[in-house]
């Protein structure tokens, strides 16, 4: 079977070469758009990452394709409708990093609420004075609003409770275990109005596109902290930027943002850039904004899980043992 891997970190290449040495394996460290068409035509199984945009146009160049495996939780970079139509199976890794992302989320919350970025900047300038500019707040006097209480959001809610915060939650599915521990489920509008810190943990879908927009930002308290470790397009960058300019936020923590791949993959060197990129770059310079390059998942344990799960999926598919990987399917066998 011809197996194609794209967007593989250079340090992971030897691992996959050894683990899958019995297969006809081709590995690219670049994204799928850089793969020659003759290699795409041969591919029967492809393993990709979140910046590999598998559109109908690109997928149509892979007539032999039987399985797409994305080494990520999210799969919004894959045209699932086309895959269903053509009988192409799609797998993902449903849970390799809930702890990593939840911890990163709370690291952002603590850094912003305790004003550590501003303090560090002052100390670098030899300013060791104490004044209201670096006055912090206590978490146990704040309300945390968690939007989406799946594997990651539920952990963030629990961390909030551990810090003594009042925790409000919004999700279509209400978890009884969180309610029993003290979390309060409420409407989205009520959560936006009542929370001092809002953390986003929803998948990107048509329904969640620009979930945080001008109208919903207007419902938030003045001085709110907003954290996004979900997907960039859940937040309308233009509305966020305008609200920040008006002084709406005490702080922003963004691990994901719209058009992030242009900055992360340095596509601006190819002449590709957007006004959203410029707004994110401007925000990144502010001492009450934290921007990280989609690395909330990026821990040693998470990378180990990604590698192990990917090899398991590929080997099981090649053997025809689909039962072993039934929990990985996004588009499964009919």
Automatic annotation (TrEMBL):
PANTHER family: 2-HYDROXYACID DEHYDROGENASE HOMOLOG 1-RELATED (PTHR43026:SF1)
Family recorded in the similarity comment: Belongs to the D-isomer specific 2-hydroxyacid dehydrogenase family.
Top-rank taxon, per record: Bacteria
Intrachain S-S bonds: 169-183
Residue ranges annotated for the D-isomer specific 2-hydroxyacid dehydrogenase NAD-binding domain, each copy included: 106-296
Annotated positions binding NAD(+): 151-152, 171, 229-230, 255, 297
Stored CDD domains: LDH_like_1
GO molecular function terms listed in the Swiss-Prot or TrEMBL record: (S)-2-hydroxyglutarate dehydrogenase activity; D-lactate dehydrogenase (NAD+) activity; NAD binding; phosphoglycerate dehydrogenase activity
Gene3D superfamilies: NAD(P)-binding Rossmann-like Domain
Occurrences of domain D-isomer specific 2-hydroxyacid dehydrogenase catalytic (ranges): 4-321
Gene Ontology BP term (one): L-serine biosynthetic process
Lineage: Bacteria, Pseudomonadati, Aquificota, Aquificia, Aquificales
Protein name, as recorded: D-lactate dehydrogenase
Binding positions ((R)-lactate): 73-74, 96, 231, 294
Keyword entries, A-Z: NAD, Nucleotide-binding, Oxidoreductase
